[in-house]
Amino acid sequence: MGQQHGDRLSATDASFLAQEGPTSHMHIGGLSVLEGPPPDFRELCDLLRGRLHLVPRYRQKLATPPLGTGRPLWVDDPSFNLEYHVRQTALPSPGSEEQLLNLTSRVFSQALDRSKPLWEMWIVEGLADGRWAILSKTHHCLIDGISGVDLATVLFDLDPVPRDVGGAGTAWTPRPEPTGAELLARGLTGFVRTGLRLADGALSAISHPERSVSGGLEALEGVGEIAWAVANPAPATPLNVEIGPHRRFVGVRNRLEDFKEVKAAFGTTVNDVVLAVVAGALRDWLHSRGVRTEGLELRALVPVSIRTADDQGQLGNRLAAMRGPLPVYIADPVARLMAVKQAMTGIKESKQAVGAEVLTSVQDFAPPTILAQASRLNFSTRLFNMIVTNVPGPQLPLYVYGREVLDVFPIAFLPRRHGLAVAIISYNGAVNFGLLGDLDALPDIDVLAGGLQDQLAELSRLADERRAAGAETEGAPA
Asked: Which ranges of the sequence are coiled-coil (predicted)?
């Protein structure tokens, strides 16, 4: 089912609105660097205009039912203006990467206007070597980073010749905004539907008690594990301080081949290697701050998609949250990697992901006041020290208006009392890290960025040594 006028926000999506504050913006996005020359701005806007029908929610805004009778709804914005959302700017000479990252930091320091569709796209010209960039910024309630369907995605092509998506010349007529009475009625209808869903669930439980008992026990075990995590909060670190509204952003380039070689040498997953590299970089950074790491294990919030096959291609969020280990107390890089592998295997076998999904599902039946509290539980800052999200991307080049996308850097968000978020994406043989930090809490974010490269280089060296030792063993006479 596509996105409709009058759709209510899901519980998870509404929770991202509830969590947003003056210093914790809930938008995410990406920075893409492309080969030059940049296309004409009007032509690019026309290309976007011809593809907006693929993501209709990008022409919709929020409408809130009166008297707190329900979650907000998506409605067509009758005054939608594409040129308000797509903005053109240019870097001053020499157009360095540092200047581009500084611009990204400033753009992501500003909250989105909730009276309009919740997204912006910046076309940045003037980069060195004739290149240009696209900076996308979308509220988390509109799109998640795992489903991969947003305006930037539909803008990209697999071929230098832009594909025909059938939207060129299609006129868009917004549907009338609902009146206050209509919004109130829809909110009340939502409560009635909630009651019917609960009744249907009760009837199903009566008809199939064995399913209810089995599923209920599994769900209780999962919620119990999350309750234990809440009672055992993440340790205090220099990352977990009150933050302001201003951001720093840096990008780090790596090769996917290096991650795969480490994975093969030590029998882990690529995601295990990513977490081990992040843990090693954090360990070095903490030491540079004079923080002792003996016995210290940081916890990462690792978003996991719980979309079914039927959900693919739909906007909105279907996420569960798992706690990934960051064992900064381990000095040896290989031992650290194996500790991550063991812990992640245990998490996958536990009921933690099930419990997170149960909390997400329970929120679907919650009125907004309860939802706001539930969202703080599901993404409680007590549970984790930082966000680490790893998104697989296409392993072939993408194009925008015939220009090849050279680099992609993902950008996450900072919840309250979280000074750092790390997002990772693989694209066309690269694994690029996007580090978003609080301006004041992380003046030394470049130390972390350099540490990521150093840690991967060290694991790659040790993987080479292991392979060489294995080859010598195989070649030795019996």
From this structure: none
Strands 86-90 and 119-125, bridge-based pairing: parallel
**Residue of 85, 140, 246, 418 marked active site:** 140
Do 234 and 330 fall within a single domain? yes
Range of the domain at 355: 221-394+409-475
Domains of the chain: total: 2
pLDDT digits (tens, 9 = 90+) for 78-119: 999 999 999 999 999 999 999 999 999 999 999 999 999 999
What would the two tokens of residue 257 be?
Answer: 């081949």
- CA torsion, points 410, 419, 114, 12, in degrees to nearest 10? 80
Query: What residue type is 370 in one-letter code?
Result: I
- pTM for the full predicted model: 0.84
> Residue 285 CB: number of other CB atoms within 10 A?
23
d(CA 138, CA 25): 11
pLDDT digits (tens, 9 = 90+) for 403-434: 999 999 999 999 889 999 999 999 999 999 99
Whether 287 sits among the annotated catalytic residues: the reply is no
Render 76-112 in DSSP notation, one character per residue. E-TT--HHHHEEEEEPPTT--HHHHHHHHHHHTTS--
